[in-house]
Write a structure and sequence with these properties.
There is one protein chain. The chain has two domains: about 120 residues, no CATH class; about 60 residues, Nucleic acid-binding proteins (OB fold (Dihydrolipoamide Acetyltransferase, E2P)), CATH 2.40.50. Strand 2 and strand 3 form a beta hairpin. The termini are far apart. Helix content is about 45%, strand content about 15%. Strands 1-2-3-5-4 form a five-stranded mixed barrel. It has about 200 residues and is an alpha+beta fold.
Amino acid sequence: MMESAGEFLASSQKIYLFIAVFGSVIFAILFTLTVIGLHGGEADLGAEGIPDDFQPEAHDIADIQGLNFFSLKSIVAFLTFFGWGGFFFGHLGWGGLAIAFGCGLLMMFLTALVISLLLKLQQSGNLRSVDFLGRRGTVYLTIPAGRQPGGMVTVLLENCTRQVKARADEEIATGCDVVIESDLGGEVFLVRRNEN
């Protein structure tokens, strides 16, 4: 029984080739969709070109914390390299099957590892209003008195600077140091002079 199964495996180069070509075609399609930015589907875009249902905080948290071996890309990588490994080493019977399986598992692991590392590098770039509270900044455009619109402040954050709309009770001239006191809503912040 085992010998006949080994003989079948040794003569199943066409099956391995079919799996390899199928996996390669799916891989090429996924790669093309990724390069042109579709990622398997289009979303309704909001006013700023960002999908309306985009939630950066909830995006692939499981992938970031650990390897995801059962993502579509990992499974396609397994099929592709299992097929090509079997095509080239299938004539060895059981040994060829083991080599093909090993090639598939290795590429599945490498794909999951690369995706995990890339997701760890990814930053949403989104800042919450609370990230600005208590931060120091410099007035970029003079802030009118009476909380009137028109003022802008360059805020110093940990790894970057951001310009935000600012209001104040008193007029604050360009170049003055300020501290952000509260969020007025709509990405507008109440500031006061920094007395330190």
